[in-house]
Design goal:
The chain is an all-beta fold and 276 residues long. The chain contains one helix and 18 strands. The protein is globular, with a radius of gyration of 20 Å. The relative contact order is 0.19.
Length: 276
């Protein structure tokens, strides 16, 4: 589903161009170009079928030469109940996942950043639990006087769940479930013609789903209102945010509307970004 209100509004095409703490889920090299010493971001997505997806992250910039980040993502499905053969309720089924991500990125030359994520994922399903550890790698380069940006990311390397149900079921089994490895290439271009704008594009290859093309467009009005739209390869999204600067602090509050590719209600995302 993605994370971060800007990335969601831009169709998850943000392999380049977006430098908030949650952008490391797309490319771990991006937080070095945020321009803020410390940034905090939180995002919450309301999905159909009683699903919830929340995320939060913080980043710290060491004099624009290196940066670290820490992120958390939680997804939960509510109102799942076990029943016996007669249909009688036996209790609620736990179904959730948590990911903790540590990010480090380093500047090489003036406009080249290379980053690494170390991801720890814990999953619960009924009476079963498992965990996995993996890494992401990314790089980002800015060209043409900060107008053109190119990025690359390789994600989910080594992430594999090992489920074992033999302690719960008579005929239980041990099963390995690997996360699909993702290879992404992105490009963004920003300029100003009457109003500032940025266009983004990304090509993503997944082991499970093949190739996807993702697109995004962002414009700004009066430096306080930002409008965005995107397409993530399956469905369009639309969003806006309001920005306010108070002393050394900058606040941005955002909303995203995500259409469903199936006959399901749409999703709604709410986010907050603070930097100083």
């Amino acid at each position: 589903m993605g994370s971060g209100f800007r990335a969601l509004s831009l169709g998850n095409s943000t392999i380049t161009g977006v430098y908030s703490p949650l952008s490391v889920r797309y490319n771990p090299s991006l937080i070095l170009f945020s321009g803020k010493r410390i940034s905090f971001e939180a995002n919450y997505i309301m999905l159909p079928l009683d699903r919830r997806l929340g995320s939060a992250g913080i980043s710290y910039d060491f004099k624009q030469d290196a940066a670290i980040g820490l992120g958390w993502i939680n997804n939960t499905v509510h109102n799942l109940y076990a029943r016996d053969g007669d249909g009688s309720e036996l209790g609620e089924i736990r179904n959730s996942e948590n990911m903790i991500t540590f990010t480090f990125c380093k500047r090489f030359m003036e406009k080249l950043s290379v980053g690494l994520n170390v991801n720890y994922v814990q999953a619960y399903l009924y009476k079963l639990s498992t965990y996995a550890v993996g890494i992401d790698f990314g790089l980002d380069i800015i060209l043409m006087k900060n107008k053109l940006e190119l990025g690359f990311a390789y994600k989910n390397s080594g992430l594999t769940y090992s489920w074992n149900s033999s302690d719960i079921y008579e005929y239980g089994a041990s099963v390995n479930e690997g996360f699909p490895e993702l290879i992404s290439m992105g490009i963004s271009y920003r300029d100003s013609v009457f109003i500032p704008f940025m266009v983004l594009g990304a090509l993503e290859k997944s082991e499970d789903l093949g190739y996807k093309i993702k697109l995004g467009l962002e414009t700004a009005f009066l430096r306080i209102l930002n409008l965005r739209c995107g397409y993530n390869g399956d469905k369009p999204s639309f969003g806006f945010s309001l920005t306010r600067k108070q002393g050394k602090y900058q606040f941005e509050l955002g909303y995203t509307f995500i259409l469903s590719p199936l006959e399901l209600p749409s999703a709604h995302s709410f986010g907050l970004l603070v930097g100083f």
